Amino acid sequence: MVLAGAVTFAAIYPGFDAKRVVVSGNRRVGGQEILTRAAIAANTTIWLQNTGAIERRVAEIPYIDRVRVRRVPPATIRIVVTERTPFAVLHSGYDAAVVDRTLRVLEPAPAESALPVFDLEPALDLTPGSFVRSSDAVTLRSAYEIMAAHHMTPVELRLDRYGGLVVTMRSGVRLMLGGQSDLTQKLTLADAILSQIVTGRRRVAAIDLRAPSAPVLVYR
Question: What is the mean predicted confidence (pLDDT) over 133-156?
Fold first, then answer.
């Protein structure tokens, strides 16, 4: 009876109604957008607020990764978020969008970006908040991370008609890398060749490493 009385008191006592909502952890997403999506019930005690539902609603914002909602007596609800980090730009036909590492679409791509570009098949769903399930996108993400581990920074990655990896470096040189089973070996060779290319009249346009035992330089 005591417990039931306490629960009833907590449910009806106006001093526990949510009067203050504190949002933290956000930088890209505006606090008002988070509050709007949270849709915290007015004139309702904090003890009857469905924190799980609030977390799910806020997590629908494309840039939001994790959400934690806490009740802070007597009348405060605290929303702590962790935002997603832009990872790459996906090009699909005429559409382009920024994604994080999990390939969640964050927003349409800006006109200019320093992020690497993954050139993919057309007609992908790039709606903000959706996840790109394309196997080619996963393949390009893996290739980019391997290159980053080798301290190589490509500006664009794509697959040719045979599924071979083609990478454009910041210098404009294309690396035709073919299959990825021996990608580490090919990248080591590419790095060695790139470090010895001397800018001159005959500029190198591409390095064909599809057969790493016989690399070919293609001049402009």
Answer: 96
In percent, how much of the chain has pLDDT > 90? Answer: 82
Phi and psi torsions of 167, nearest 5°: -125, 135
Q: Where are the domains of the chain?
A: 2-83, 88-219
Residue 11 has pLDDT above 80, yes or no: no
Check whether domain 88-219 has CATH 3.40.50.11690, yes or no: yes
SS3 call for 37: helix
C-beta atoms surrounding 190 within 10 Å? 24
Mean predicted confidence (pLDDT) in 155-184: 95
Q: Which two tokens stand for residue 150?
A: 């080798």
- Judge whether residue 56 has pLDDT over 70: yes
Which region holds residue 95: left if phi is over 0, alpha if psi is between -120 and 50, else beta?
beta
Count the alpha carbons within 13 Å of 212 in the hemisphere toward its beta carbon. Answer: 16
**Into which CATH architecture does domain 2-83 fall?**
Roll (3.10)
* Position 202 pLDDT exceeds 70: no
Burial of 129 (0-12, 13-18, 19+ CB in 10 A): middle
- pTM (2 decimals)? 0.87
Task: Report the amino acid identity of residue 195.
Answer: S
Is the bond preceding 62 in cis, omega lying within 30 degrees of 0? Answer: no
Pairwise CA distance, residues 214 & 116, whole Å: 28
The Cα–Cα gap between 153 and 138 comes to 18
> Which residues 6+ apart lie within 8 Å of 60 measured at CB?
37, 129
